[in-house]
Fold:
Amino acid sequence: MPVPNPLSSQEDGALGPRFASGPLLAPSTPSSRRWQAGRFLLDVSVPRVMGIVNVTPDSFSDGGRFLAAEAAKAHAERLLAEGADVLDIGAESTRPGSPGTPADEQWLRLEPVLAHVLGLGCPVSVDTSDPQVMRQCIDSGVDIINDVRALRRPGALEAVASHPQVGLCLMHMQGEPQTMQLAPAYDDISHEVQAFLDDRLRMVVRAGIAPERVLLDPGFGFGKSLVHNITLAKGLNRLHSLGRPLLVGWSRKGSLGQLTGRSVEDRVVPSVAAALAAVAQGASVLRVHDVAATVDALKVWHALGPEAASGLQPE
Structure:
């Protein structure tokens, strides 16, 4: 594992390899820094990297590159080799203007990839809002459902609540992908995002989903202008009052292009910078395309960042 891993096995208490034989957790980790993700109990008291595998023809950054199952499998293996802690597989683009993908088509793309990656020994997430796809994924053994609509589609809440351990990512989005960037508007974006995520968290808990299963995502780029995204990012630490770890996805997004003038394929450095800014405000999971660059940046962050200063001894 390229980033130092504080996880320890609950069975023998010894430091072990990443996700070796069952749930891994640092014994002293408070419940607010634990994430129950299907087969795995993860310590997110240090930042974790979620690598993106888009099995789509039209995702904004790499649409079509990994649509073929064999290409997606190879990419997943490469992301793990680069240091990803979690894989996030998506078969429906949610880029601005995207029209959506029928459930049957999503599953046709997902099934052969999941059959492979579920045997790689890491938590596997599927990025979908469709209740039918959720049930198919959960039945196949997927560990996490990552829903940009925060289980608002009819049947989605019931699909996830039906399983006792599947992890969940709840994201804020104003509007729908097809129209969300036309005219996003807020009176107080930080307050409104916080209130939305609080409401959705309470909803899932009432449905029987334990809070330990849930990550919260402010949804950068989903129904938000550049100013909205910057304001939300600067106030990210407000969301810690909700008591659950935060997932952040800045990778290659349009706001980074607006800030730097870089095209989507040339946004690695801006993406890593945004990821570290999120870590500085307590983000627990970073959803990224560029795993190796992010992992390297986190190594340096751990060595030189604020939390490292108190532990260093003079040579």
User: Anything to note?
Assistant: The two ends are 27 Å apart (CA to CA). Confidence is low (pLDDT under 50) at residues 1-28.
